[in-house]
Design brief:
The protein has one domain: SGNH hydrolase (Rossmann fold, 3-Layer(aba) Sandwich), CATH 3.40.50.1110. Helix content is 41%, strand content 16%. Strands 1, 2, 3, 4, 5, 6 and 7 form a 7-stranded mixed sheet that branches. It is built from 7 helices and 7 strands; from the N terminus they run βααβββαβαβαβαα. The mean pLDDT is 93.
């Protein structure tokens, strides 16, 4: 922490970046939850931003991009902005026919290793990927989430910096996404924010 301010870096694709309606992105309700519960010494950091009633909410969300693009870009940016906590939700923008699970896991591990190398104290909240009704494109997500959990267990062997946050378990694409069956609606964003919030508070306590 820097001057008792917790620096949080959200990393991912369009689900992290959000859009014109920030209420459909988890970053706004997450910041609101932190503020409502007295966690005011929190700062979202990154090279990208979107406005909110709390001021600009910075992030490393890249709409339409997959892990192969995100990892090298964020690795460079994190070196300049070494956050205390990383919120990592990454796994969309591939297609099931590409057999992407090994690629995503490899890229995720590479990113985590880089973050730890730059800042050995960083806490990486590694999320399972929210399910999607855009099928068969995203039919790989359940298998991916199993591997993400295994990756979390791998790190537990020698460090406690990597914490699995299960965003997928309580997320229902039929009720929690907009018409594209991929991106969260207001309800879905609230669910995601709640899981992140619980994980962040556990770290602070």
């Amino acid at each position: 922490m820097n001057n008792n301010t917790l620096r949080i870096m959200p990393i991912g694709d369009s689900i992290t970046e959000g859009g014109e309606t920030l209420s459909r992105c988890y970053r706004y309700p997450l910041r609101q939850k932190l503020s409502d519960n007295g966690y005011n010494n929190v700062k979202f950091i990154g090279t990208r931003k979107s406005p909110s009633c709390h001021g600009d909410l910075y992030h490393e969300g890249y709409g339409g991009k997959n892990a192969t693009y995100i990892v090298p870009v964020v690795s460079r940016n994190y070196e300049q902005l070494p956050a205390d906590v990383v919120l990592l939700h990454m796994g969309h923008n591939f297609s099931s026919e590409d057999n992407p699970i090994p690629i995503i896991i490899s890229e995720t591990k590479q990113l985590i290793d880089t973050l730890l190398e730059i800042n050995s104290n960083v806490k990486v909240l590694l999320a399972t990927v929210i399910p999607s009704g855009n099928l068969p494109k995203y039919s790989y997500i359940p298998g991916l989430n199993k591997e993400i959990k295994k990756l979390g267990e791998h790190y537990k062997i020698y460090c406690n910096n990597i914490i699995i946050v299960d965003l997928a378990d309580n997320f229902n694409w039929e009720t929690d996404t907009v018409d594209d069956k991929v991106h969260p609606n207001t309800t879905g964003a609230e669910k995601i924010a709640s899981e992140w919030y619980k994980a962040i508070v556990a770290i602070l306590k």
